[in-house]
DNA sequence: ACGCATGATTTCCG
DNA sequence: CGGAAATCATGCGT
């Protein structure tokens, strides 16, 4: 529009003589030049002013008439000129502000909580976050609280998404509407694309401030849910007998090195979860249990003596049963990472057995006499008994005494020198839990 | 109500 | 980051 030749040098009254059509018309009316023009312009302005009061059809017709009016280009130019003077002041005022920190915070949180993330992944992300908060438990979390939490979260998530979508849709609708309107109006008055853009920006800002409110309330809801969940999480439920039995069995049969590997933990968790009738039990819980057990055992070995003997006997019986059956399908978990896949066939156990032999030899040759050897031996012996190579686990009960702990001042000391025999760490994968 | 057992959390360390 | 140790908080038998 700025390219339009400046035919008008001043507004209203004077310099209109330049317009060809205008002067032509003026002479025809016969009135005073100035009067006629004024009246004409006043007429048009009046029409414009009242255009909003008319019905749609009427307005449409009027609009058309106005657009075709011979004075229209002139008026357009006047508007152009006025605009040119005001637009500069507007320009200065409109600079885009930096992205709102508050909004970013909310966005980040929603993303972290899995509310605004990808569809299904969101739930698991949130669960993972919750599990992480609970002390590093990952994997199968099918506890009642988790499912409850997830259900609530997905509810929030759903509401959030539908609302967001609604807002977005409304925003788009409104924006296109305004844009159409402005485009339409740009025929009667000068509107630059930049201005339209600016208008759209304003609209978007308005809508995003509404969105922010939505996000804020969603965040609040999540926080409330989370705190409630965390509080609930702190509640302690004792494991049932079977679960404790399984854990104790593992503990006492690996007394010399009661550090289950990740695989072993997982297996234990699975096993306990089955016997415990689905709910609870994951790696974190198993870790907790072993942590507590180790500490408390070490603190007061005497108190646990009876228990130790009992489980020793039990595992011994288990071992004989297993060996006579020729299968170790449900013996207390495999302590080695080699069998992590769960397949633990004979050839595999044969390999293990060989390595066990060599390891023992090495240890004794290297004068690594002492508890570490002892500890390895008894762990390995357990492995052997599991693999059906031996049925000698019966003699193990004596090894389950505190000797194996006390003699070397704790598991820490016992396991540390085992790294000395690390060249034989191949079979030492039995001890992968310590290296992990 | 009390005390012990025990699961969970926190803090510290290598 | 995994484990030890300390601590918290609850479950449960008395």
TrEMBL record:
<keyword id="KW-0805">Transcription regulation</keyword>
<dbReference type="Pfam" id="PF03792">
    <property type="entry name" value="PBC"/>
</dbReference>
<keyword id="KW-0217">Developmental protein</keyword>
<feature type="domain" description="Homeobox">
    <location>
        <begin position="230"/>
        <end position="300"/>
    </location>
</feature>
<keyword id="KW-0539">Nucleus</keyword>
<feature type="region of interest" description="Disordered">
    <location>
        <begin position="407"/>
        <end position="436"/>
    </location>
</feature>
<dbReference type="InterPro" id="IPR001356">
    <property type="entry name" value="HD"/>
</dbReference>
<comment type="similarity">
    <text>Belongs to the TALE/PBX homeobox family.</text>
</comment>
<dbReference type="GO" id="GO:0043565">
    <property type="term" value="F:sequence-specific DNA binding"/>
</dbReference>
<keyword id="KW-0371">Homeobox</keyword>
<dbReference type="InterPro" id="IPR050224">
    <property type="entry name" value="TALE_homeobox"/>
</dbReference>
<feature type="domain" description="PBC">
    <location>
        <begin position="36"/>
        <end position="231"/>
    </location>
</feature>
<keyword id="KW-0221">Differentiation</keyword>
<keyword id="KW-0010">Activator</keyword>
<feature type="region of interest" description="Disordered">
    <location>
        <begin position="322"/>
        <end position="343"/>
    </location>
</feature>
<feature type="DNA-binding region" description="Homeobox">
    <location>
        <begin position="232"/>
        <end position="301"/>
    </location>
</feature>
<keyword id="KW-0804">Transcription</keyword>
<dbReference type="InterPro" id="IPR008422">
    <property type="entry name" value="KN_HD"/>
</dbReference>
<dbReference type="GO" id="GO:0005667">
    <property type="term" value="C:transcription regulator complex"/>
</dbReference>
<dbReference type="InterPro" id="IPR009057">
    <property type="entry name" value="Homeodomain-like_sf"/>
</dbReference>
<feature type="compositionally biased region" description="Polar residues">
    <location>
        <begin position="407"/>
        <end position="424"/>
    </location>
</feature>
<feature type="region of interest" description="Disordered">
    <location>
        <begin position="1"/>
        <end position="35"/>
    </location>
</feature>
<protein>
    <recommendedName>
        <fullName>Pre-B-cell leukemia transcription factor 1</fullName>
    </recommendedName>
</protein>
<dbReference type="InterPro" id="IPR005542">
    <property type="entry name" value="PBX_PBC_dom"/>
</dbReference>
<dbReference type="Pfam" id="PF05920">
    <property type="entry name" value="Homeobox_KN"/>
</dbReference>
<dbReference type="GO" id="GO:0003700">
    <property type="term" value="F:DNA-binding transcription factor activity"/>
</dbReference>
<dbReference type="GO" id="GO:0030154">
    <property type="term" value="P:cell differentiation"/>
</dbReference>
<keyword id="KW-0238">DNA-binding</keyword>
<dbReference type="GO" id="GO:0005634">
    <property type="term" value="C:nucleus"/>
</dbReference>
